[in-house]
Amino acid sequence: MDPYLFAAPPPGFDTEEVPRVLVREGVIYSACNYGLVWQGEVRDGAPSREQLRSAAEWGANIIAYARRRRRA
To answer: Within 10 Å of residue 67's Cβ, how many Cβ atoms?
Structure first.
């Protein structure tokens, strides 16, 4: 599976914060709380279709990253 391309991390639950993601030694850290977006929640109400799609594609990238690391 080819990863989805992003110029920057998509917004997470708190859409006013600047998304920031850190990766170190195979651990991915973000305070964006993408899990809530995957459940259909954002701080200012219901997420837009674009927010849901971006969060889902971001999640697919995380899974692809984990699978590649496991195979290596």
So the answer is: 11
Q: List 27's β-bridge partners, or say none.
A: 24
pTM passes above 0.85: no
How many domains does the chain divide into? 1
The C-alpha atoms of residue 29 and residue 26 are separated, in whole angstroms, by 10
Q: What is the pLDDT along the chain (72 residues), one digit of tens a residue?
A: 788 999 999 988 987 778 889 999 989 998 888 889 989 999 888 889 999 999 999 999 999 999 999 998
**Structural domain boundaries, residue 38:** 21-71
